[in-house]
Amino acid sequence: TQKRKDQKLTYEDLVIAKGTYEKGTNADIEEFIYQLLDVFDDGVVGRSDLEAVLTAVLRNISSHESHQSEP
User: How far apart are CA 42 and CA 67, in angstroms?
Assistant: First the structure.
């Protein structure tokens, strides 16, 4: 999704993630996670990358919880 710059998660992304996590070496898994965290695609996972990831995760959790509480 980051390489496409569209901020959308596709079925193909999920298949790649699952395959990497299940069958990849430790190095493959570390590289995959690093690429997920390198939001600004500058080769460095810095504070701003981590803040962006955490903000997105918390926003999605909050949104999901508010939808569940609606009658």
Answer: 35
pTM confidence score: 0.65
More confident residue, 27 or 2: 27
Q: In which element (H, E) is residue 68 found?
A: helix 47-68
Q: What is the DSSP string of 24-56?
A: S-HHHHHHHHHHHH-TT-SS---HHHHHHHHHH
Residue whose C-alpha is closest to residue 1's, from 48, 38, 49, 51: 38
CA 33 to CA 29: how far, in whole Å?
6
Quote the mean pLDDT of the chain: 83
Q: Name the one residue in this structure whose structure tokens are 């079925």.
A: 11
